[in-house]
Amino acid sequence: MAEPQTETPKRHKHHPDRALIRSRGYFHRLGPGIVTGAADDDPSGIGTYSQAGAQAGFGFLWATVWLLPFAFAVQEACARVALVTGQGLASIIKTRMPRWVLVLAVTLVALANTVNIAADLSSMSAALRLLVPIDQVLGVILFAVGIAVAEVLVPYHRYARVLRWLCLSLLAYVAVLFVAKVDWNAVAIATLLPHVDLSRTSIELMIALAGTTISPYLFFWQAAEEVEERKVMAQLHHRSDVGSAHLRAMRGDVFAGMLTGVFIMFAIMVTTGATLNANGITNIASAEDAAKALTPLAGQFAGLLFLLGILGVGLLSIPVLAGSTAYALAETFGWRESLELKPREAKAFYAVIVGSVLVAVALNLIGIPPMTFLFLAAVLNGLAAPALMVIVWLLARNHDLLGRWVSPLWSRVLLGAATVLMAALPVIWLFAK
Fold first, then answer.
1. Are 393 and 412 in contact (CB under 8 A)?
2. What is the reported pTM?
3. N or C terminus: which one in the chain shows less Cβ crowding within 10 Å?
4. Which 3-state string (H, E, C) describes 22-62?
5. Which CATH number fits domain 9-431: 2.40.400.10, 3.40.50.150, 1.20.1740.10, 1.10.20.10?
6. Which of 161-175, 190-204, 246-260, 319-333 has the weakest average pLDDT?
7. pLDDT of residue 167
8. What pLDDT does 19 receive?
């Protein structure tokens, strides 16, 4: 694989100084973790969180407290394996597992990602239509072309900066909290005192919340971007070995990202619970439906912020979805892969990115409802996630692979518990009434 072109340290300062993440200039040193966490709140995820808040009010706020450590453990293990080995997740699986395991996992991830992109493009176009009069299909095409062109033509070190700034769009959902009328005492009680409902409908929402928070595409993206960042570190310092400072900084970066993602989930469920559920609106078909419903209840400002957030996180998450598919397939088949390479240097890699977006556009053109997209993506993610999490758990504790940098006990316990949860929820759903 070709190395990225040399740049001055100033242009790459977000990673070489990541070990100093607590010092001044924190935002500039954030790495893949914050982008991964923010991309977790894509438009389809926003729709899921909105439905949970509308249907159950504050009833699922307790889930955010439990999902945060689980999501962090999964992403930290993926980042650790990639940062220490300098290889993407698919590359490592290919050398450590039977090939059919890799092919099955990557196929499921690619299918789920493509369906997710289709749902996100549809949501973004529908949200844009609420702001300006534009044809739904035309909006889908415009967003698809713009995102694909940017991801293919802009080098990684510049693209990463754009993705980090797009993370700020998530603040729109925090701002909505300040214009909605929220009973914070009720929020605190619902968050700290879990009330577990084992009805089939509640289990379905729990599966959806867990699936949108712990998604397989994030595993591949986190690992691939840690490899990209390690290349930058090697380019600037002429060394690629990893020390304890790098791992501590990676852990802080990943935690910041997942905390951001889960907090936005919390904010959306609080907002929709305090407005939609409190006013008897319990069925939300999409993120844009939530934005429309919020406007008369919480004011034009709340609805506008919600819409702008959908557009911002869509611009962030679709490149992550397409990129994770490209990295997974490239590592599986041994293609050259890097967002630093020019299109002519990694034709197959970039073809996957463009192809994923084109297939997603085609799914929109044949008239599949957005909620069908979301259901299919959730099912595919649910099938792929537990198996992949078992693989990540095995890799993260492998001394031959990671040496003294194997995952600590707390990480293995959290990752194991998250795996059991993801595998058990569908089984519980089968027996629920």
1. yes
2. 0.80
3. C
4. CCCCHHHHCCHHHHHHHHCCCHHHHHHHHHHHHHHCCCCCH
5. 1.20.1740.10
6. 161-175
7. 67
8. 46
CA 116 to CA 108: how far, in whole Å?
12
The residue with tokens 């909505």 is 176
Residue 403 backbone class (left: φ over 0; alpha: ψ -120 to 50; beta: rest): left
What does the alpha-carbon distance between residue 266 and residue 290 come to, in Å, rounded to a whole number? Answer: 15
Task: Give me the count of residues in the chain.
Answer: 433
* Contact of 14 with 160, CB cutoff 8 Å: yes
Answer yes or no: are the C-beta atoms of 34 and 257 closer than 8 Å: yes
Residue 199 has what DSSP assignment?
S
C-alpha angle 44-118-79 in degrees, rounded to nearest 5: 65
pLDDT value, residue 28: 44
Tokens of residue 347, six digits: 């034709």
For the chain, the first-to-last Cα distance in angstroms comes to 53
The packing angle between helices 216-237 and 300-333, to 10°, is 70
CB 222 within 8 A of CB 33: yes
Q: What does the pLDDT average to over 124-148?
A: 88
Handedness of CA 270, 272, 273, 278 (dihedral sign): positive
- Return the higher-pLDDT residue of 290 and 424: 424
State whether residue 98 is helix, strand or coil: coil
Encoded amino acid at 111, one letter: L
Closest CA to 176 of 295, 330, 322: 295
Spatial neighbors of 81 by CB under 8 A, at least 6 apart, are 87, 89, 92, 223, 392, 395, 396, 401, 402
Q: What is the DSSP string of 216-271?
A: HHHHHHHHHHHHHHHHHHHHHHS-----HHHHHHHHHHHHHHHHHHHHHHHHHHHH
Q: Which residue has the tokens 């379905």?
A: 204
Distance between CA atoms of residues 114 and 149, nearest Å: 17
**Residue linked to tokens 């300098």:** 86
Q: How is residue 378 written in tokens?
A: 């959730």
For residues 401 and 157, give the distance between their C-alpha atoms in angstroms, rounded to a whole number.
28
Least Cα distance to 83 among 299, 232, 185, 194 occurs for 232
